[in-house]
Automatic annotation (TrEMBL):
Subunit structure: Interacts with HSPA5.
Family: Belongs to the SIL1 family.
Keywords: Endoplasmic reticulum, Glycoprotein, Protein transport, Signal, Translocation, Transport
Gene Ontology terms, MF aspect: adenyl-nucleotide exchange factor activity
Species per Swiss-Prot/TrEMBL record: Lipotes vexillifer
Bias kind Basic and acidic residues: ranges: 36-47
GO BP annotations, alphabetical order: protein transport
Name of the protein this chain belongs to: Nucleotide exchange factor SIL1
The organism's taxonomic lineage, starting at the top: Eukaryota, Metazoa, Chordata, Craniata, Vertebrata
Subcellular location: Endoplasmic reticulum lumen
The keyword Endoplasmic reticulum is annotated on this UniProt entry: yes
Amino acid sequence: MAPLGMLLGMLMTSCFTFCLGHKNLKEFALTNPEESSTKETERKETTAEEELDPTVLEVFHPTHEWQALRPGHAVPAGSHVRLNLQTGAREVKLQDEDKLRNNLKGLKKGKRLDINTNTYTSQDLKSALAKFKEGADMESSKEDKARQAKVKRLFRPIEELKKDFEELNVVIETDMQIMVRLINKFNSSNSSLEEKIAALFDLEYYVHQMDNAQDLLSFGGLQVVINGLNSTEPLLKEYAAFVLGAAFSSNPKVQVEAIEGGALQKLLVVLATEQSLTAKKKVLFALCSLLRHFPYAQQQFLKLGGLHVLRSLVQEKGMEVLAVRVVTLLYDLVTEKMFAEEEAELMRETSPEKLQQYRQVHLLPGLQEQGWCEITAHLLALPEHDAREKVLQTLGALLATCRDRYRQDPQLNRTLVTLQAEYQALAALELQDGEDEGYFWELLGSINSLLKELR
């Protein structure tokens, strides 16, 4: 029994010792996974904070070449920092001396040089952008106000100007008021000859506009100018015709009123009587403006012996310049009627009013009867190329009516042959200069066509 008791006691002692040792081993183990992980995280955060702490940043010394900027480096003031878009790294170098000097001047003036390289959150950027837009709007508003103030300084309201002009006895007039004043001055017996001529000269400027020319009818101004053609003063006749020519041009309403007011008769009388060349130029200009695109006026022109008046004018010595203008007028009237007939045929209109009016204009028979075939042909002897061109055009337009007369005129054939040789040489010179179809080549073509038709 004694040995058994001793064995049992030893066994209990061993168990107690083993349990106590296992407890101490747990308390004093070298590693605990959970606690070790937590301590490692705390250590890294502390290290990162220490790295980002500006008090422990390492100062970077840039050069004039770009160098990569590593985390933890502090950049000296005035350095040039950029983001390399290819590598994604920030790079730094020293600024150029001129830029650095300008930046230092800016600092001295109180401007802030922002070299902060910290990143911003999206909310910071949105807030900054909103402030930027507000600032831009304020700047735009300030600019608008400044511009408006400048305009007010430079320009004044029309009401103030009118008031000032009234105080100075100066009245702002409309075109209508100006024309009334000019007509009154021209028609006044108290106005001198120079004042009347000046009034007509100014009036011609205004009646170029269609509306102003029609307004001239509303207060009887047109009739006053037409009556001016009866003046005994040659200059008044000349300038009155000048005003009428400007008012008639492409203005049917004024043309009708002029015919009813006797303008056509008065113009023909001035052309038929002895006047200066400049006066007859102005009167012929007014006559051409009245006749063009107005078939009724053309009928009246033929009835009043207008072709006879023009023939006498062309044959008058020293009126060669007017002869070319007369031939041009005849060409325009002949082709105008032809175009009206062709237009009606294309539109399949058998009896439009305009065509009926042109059919009552018997211009071509009148030209043949009064010898215009020969008159036009003899004008080819004029030396100017431009005059010859217009005569050739008219000869072509009259060819159907004057063919027999042309063939019986030996002088016309000789003139055409002479001109053919002359223009062949001139066309050859044009060809040498690189002009395939120049001005003289076209004139040569017109001459060749006439010669072909007359053979």
